[in-house]
Amino acid sequence: MPEEGVIEYEAIVLVGKKPTAVYLARTIMLLASIGVAIIKARGRFIPKAITVAVRALKASSCNCEVSIDEEAIKTDEQEFLVPKIEIKLVKEEQ
């Protein structure tokens, strides 16, 4: 059995510019194979991450845990605070 850290790294879905269906398929595949999916997004991709999580919840019975935070991004002149979200889905045992 792989270590817990390895499982968590493999279970991460980073939401970005690709269509929602790509991330949804990856999330459902992870839930079916290892029972855990961690959906992460920053900034303007947060609504897409929420959509993926809601659709995955409807497709399979799993528990949801959400954490939100801000990340400081520095440029030469300014520092920006960018919101980020992490949604952890864990498949319920039956």
Detailed description of the structure:
The chain is α+β, with helices and mostly antiparallel strands. It has one domain: 2-Layer Sandwich (Translation Initiation Factor IF3). The protein has helices spanning 4-10, 20-33, 46-59; strands at residues 12-14, 36-42, 62-74, 79-91. A 4-stranded mixed β-sheet has the order 1-2-4-3. A hairpin with a 4-residue loop joins strand 3 and strand 4. The longest helix has 14 residues, at 20-33. The protein is elongated, with a radius of gyration of 14 Å.
Whole-number tally of structural domains: 1
| CATH architectural grouping | 2-Layer Sandwich
Number of helices: 3
According to CATH, the fold-level topology is Translation Initiation Factor IF3
User: Which CATH top level class fits?
Assistant: Alpha Beta
| CATH homology-level superfamily | Alba-like domain
* Terminus-to-terminus distance: 21 Å
Calculate Rg over CA atoms. Answer: 14 Å
Overall, the morphology is elongated
Helix content: 25-40%
What's the rounded overall pLDDT mean?
89
Total DSSP E strands: 4
Query: Helix- and strand-based class?
Result: alpha+beta
Order of helices and strands: HEHEHEE
Outline the biggest β-sheet.
4 strands, mixed
Low-confidence stretches: none
Beta-strand portion reads: 35-45%
Largest beta sheet: strand ordering:
1-2-4-3
